[in-house]
What we know:
Blueprint: H1 4-13, E1 27-30, E2 33-37, H2 48-59, E3 61-66, E4 72-79, H3 82-96, E5 98-99, E6 101-106, E7 109-114, H4 117-125, H5 133-136, H6 142-146, H7 151-162, E8 163-164, E9 174-175
Antiparallel strand pairs: 1-2, 2-5, 3-4, 4-7, 6-7, 8-9
Helix pairs in contact: 2-3, 2-7
Amino acid sequence: MISVGKLKRLLSYLNVNYSFLNNKIEFTKKGRKISIKNPKFPFNLKTKEGAYLLGCIVSDGTIYIDKKARNKVRTKYSSSDEESTEKFKEAINKTFGEVYLQKELNRGNTYLKVGSSIIGEALLKIGAHLGNKTKANKEIPWLIKENKELSRHYLSAIFGDEGSSAGNKHYQPYLT
C-alpha cells in the first residue's frame, strides 16, 4: 500500500500523468476499513446518478465537518423509506465505486454515513451545501442550473425525499 501523497510524488518524479492510474487503483482506505473498492476515477458527477445524489444530499442528506476526525468533510443521508435508501446506495456506487456505508437506525429512520471524505468534497464542488442547509437557504446547485437535462433526476430525488405517504403504504406519495 502507498499513500496518495507518496504516489503523487512518485508519479511526478517519473513524469507520469496521474490519470495513468485511474483504472488501476483497487481501493482507497483510511485505517482498517476500505472506503471505496474499485473507485471510478475520475469521478463523473455530470450523470443522472450524480444529479440524483446531489438531490438526495440537498434534501434529506448533509455534508458536515467532523471535528472528531481532524475536520474531515463527512456525508450522511437519512430516510425512513427503504426504496429511497436503496436508490441512494445504487447512485453512490455507480458514481464512485463500491462505497463503504455505515448504517444506523434511529427513530424509524435509516442513516447512511459515507466512509470517505472524497465523496463529500466532490459533491461540494458541484454545488452541494456544507452545514445547516435551512439556515443557509442557498440556491439551486450550479451543476443543475447549467445542465437542464440533469434537473429531472435531481428533482426526482428531492420529490422522493420530501414527499409523504401519510404513514400508510396504501396511499400514493404527495408533497407536503
